[in-house]
Amino acid sequence: MTSYQEITQQIGDQWVAALNRASEAVDRMAEGIKESRGRVELPANETISKLTESFQEGMPKPTEIVEANFELTNRLLAAQRDLTLRLLAAASGAQEAPASEPAAQAAPKKAAAKKTAAS
After folding, report:
1. Rounded CA separation 95/87 (Å)
2. What distance in Å separates the CA atoms of residue 108 and residue 114, rounded to the nearest whole number?
3. Rg, the chain, Cα only
4. How far apart are CA 8 and CA 14, in angstroms?
5. Is this model's pTM higher than 0.70 or not?
6. Span 7-23, mean pLDDT?
7. What pLDDT is recorded for position 26?
8. Per-residue 3-state assignment (H helix, E strand, C coil) for the chain
């Protein structure tokens, strides 16, 4: 019987493979655009160029936006995971620290709990 973790690993592998295929397609498309730019000459409208430059001033670069949003998403997912594990532990009455908590932090909490219980 396949375990839940094996199933999620397989699904994750499929998602990553799909993203890799999409990334390769984007690379091919970008290369095609670069090649096309050399062959096609578009007239540059000075007014549109100035307007575009004025909009871009002070705006974050697209890569900065992506990096900031993914960093935020990672932080939110970690916080949600920790909260969910704590809720599950509380609901089951377990006294163990969540798996994401380092053992060094969990040990003092257990020792403090034992001292409190002994008192």
Report:
1. 12
2. 10
3. 26
4. 10
5. no
6. 95
7. 94
8. CCCHHHHHHHHHHHHHHHHHHHHHHHHHHHHHHHHHHHHCCCCCCHHHHHHHHHHHCCCCCHHHHHHHHHHHHHHHHHHHHHHHHHHHHHHHCCCCCCCCCCHHHHHHHHHHHHHHHHC
Q: Which amino acid belongs to residue 18?
A: A
Q: Report which of 119, 118, 96 is spatially closest to residue 109, judged by C-alpha positions.
A: 96
Give the residue carrying structure tokens 């999620």: 8
Residue whose structure tokens are 């002994």: 118
Distances (CA, A) of 77 to 15, 70, 83, 103: 18, 10, 10, 21
Which pLDDT score is estimated for 94?
59
* Tokens read off for 106: 């969990």
Cα-to-chain-centroid distance, residue 23: 16
For 46, 47, 111, the CA distances from 41, given in Å and listed in that order, are: 15, 18, 73
